[in-house]
Amino acid sequence: MKKEKPGVTDKRPNIVFIIADDVSWNDIGAYGHPNIKTPNLNLLAREGMLFTEAYLTTSSCSPSRTSIISGLYPHNTDAEQLSWPLPENKRTFVQQLKDAGYWTGLAGKYHMGDAVRDDFDALLEMQWLDAPIGLDRRLKGDGSGCDEWISLLKGRPKDKPFFAWLASFDAHRPFYDDNSCPKVHSLSDVTLPPYVPATKLVKKDYSLYYDEISRMDDYIGKVVNELEAQGVSDNTLILFVADNGRAFPRDKTTLYDGGIKTPWIVKWPARIKAGSVNNNLISSIDIAPTFMKVAGIEPLNEFEGFDFSEMLTNSSKEIRDQIYAEDHFHDYEDYTRAVRTKTFKYVRNFYADLPDTPSADVNRGRSWQSMLEEYKKGTLTEAQLKCFKKPRDIEELFDIKTDPFELNNLASNPNNVLDLKEMRSRLKTTRTATKDFLPKERTPDDFSRETGLPTKYRIRPRPSKAMYLKAQDEGVILFNPDFVETSVK
Predict the structure, then answer these.
(1) Whole-prediction pTM
(2) How far lies 26's CA from each of 42, 51, 219, in Å?
(3) pLDDT tens digits, the chain, 489 residues: what are they?
(4) Can you identify the CATH homologous superfamily of domain 14-318?
(5) 335 DSSP assignment
(6) Which CATH number is associated with domain 326-433?
(7) Are 276 and 48 in contact, with CB atoms under 8 Å apart?
(8) How many CB atoms lie within 10 A of CB 320?
């Protein structure tokens, strides 16, 4: 008989971590969206606990993931810029679970570097296909990145507790206007924040984004059903979050709530009262110590977050009075920091000379191209001009209670002098405590801030109108001919 490792028993909970790609918290039915179709996530919330004040340490794909797995703020991971790998010397909670006798597996999007691969006993990484036109690539399978989730759960060993990292590619761009994703939303289902114009192209982009969320939601239902079929649902903790907000202007890559506020739903029938709601602050940096704690393992000393396991049974339990978030290079250079309490958000733009340009995949999409058209016409509102503003405000202060879309900067308001002073102090204290630093040099942009095309290539020959229309039909805006740069230096 094989000898078990110390501390490994059948009583320890299984852990299923589901992470969406580029999905904002308020684009889930459970959070009050009136039209989006997310029945399985809604059910997950009804059977578990829904967190209303959950945040990410950054609004960029790979830095968010490496921060979660290492339990460190992005600036301490040495992987703070997009697509930088987590170094070998950084320990992860997954490796700790594996060492303690958990079987560990990942299926779907990976994006954390080669050093982390060995932390997983099984790694079913999504596979790419090159797109014939443009820079955006298609995935093998249905494009969701969820194809192997059930295979991973079915293939796990049944004699030990397990940890499964299930990573969707939905709802990452590009949004294809073809049959690759079921079309279940119309333009009339779309609700827009005030910082994007209500053009037909913007609404179209949003409706396709909704469709991808619904496709992911269907896979989440399959995961729940599989756990029930295996008879392990009661003692399995499921946590659903996103890596950052929706890939639209003023959301992804920003430190506004559209970028860093995340859906956060936990189901654990053995411990959590169904239908619970938690209104206290929580951060993605708290995931690593919590997963280790519920597994009966002491969190690593270097972890910078807090164990939130007590919050799962006590909705009044508070573990923090603020969250800290950061923005680094993501396609374009930037360096921004933010502190958020339940009442105020303070944003410090260290590179205020640079505009708040959306990520390059956003720039190649319908919404940005439509906004550029409206910008040329002079029809954008002040809120919609935020991405074009240059220079930006060095400091921004928002009263979240009265201004949830963060449109009214109170930093120069004489009535908020004390609030500004307090939030400045919070930021300074956190930067000092976490050894945050300002880089000595800036990183050059990888893409044009108008077209989303690479800056390191000469764009020749100029695509024909037919090629442009073909790309548009496929859901890939190659670029708008009015804004093409035939030579980008």
Answers:
(1) 0.91
(2) 12, 12, 20
(3) 334 444 444 589 999 999 999 999 999 999 999 999 999 999 999 999 999 999 999 999 999 999 999 999 999 999 999 989 999 999 999 999 999 999 999 999 999 999 999 999 999 998 877 644 445 677 888 889 999 999 999 999 999 999 999 999 999 999 988 888 999 999 999 999 999 999 999 999 999 999 999 999 999 999 999 999 999 999 999 999 999 999 999 999 999 999 999 999 999 999 999 999 999 999 999 999 999 999 999 999 999 999 999 999 999 999 999 999 999 999 999 999 999 999 999 999 999 999 999 999 999 999 999 999 999 999 999 999 999 999 999 999 999 999 999 999 999 999 999 999 999 999 999 999 999 999 988 988 888 888 888 875 433 333 444 544 444 444 443 333 333 332 222
(4) Alkaline Phosphatase, subunit A (3.40.720.10)
(5) -
(6) 3.30.1120
(7) yes
(8) 18
Is the distance from CB of 15 to CB of 237 less than 8 angstroms? Answer: yes
d(CA 60, CA 226): 31
Return the residue matching tokens 């909970």. Answer: 13
Please, is 106 exposed, middle or buried when counting C-beta atoms within 10 Å of its C-beta (0-12, 13-18, 19+)?
Answer: buried
Residue span(s) of the chain under CATH 3.40.720.10 come to 14-318
Q: How far apart are the first and last CA of the chain?
A: 66
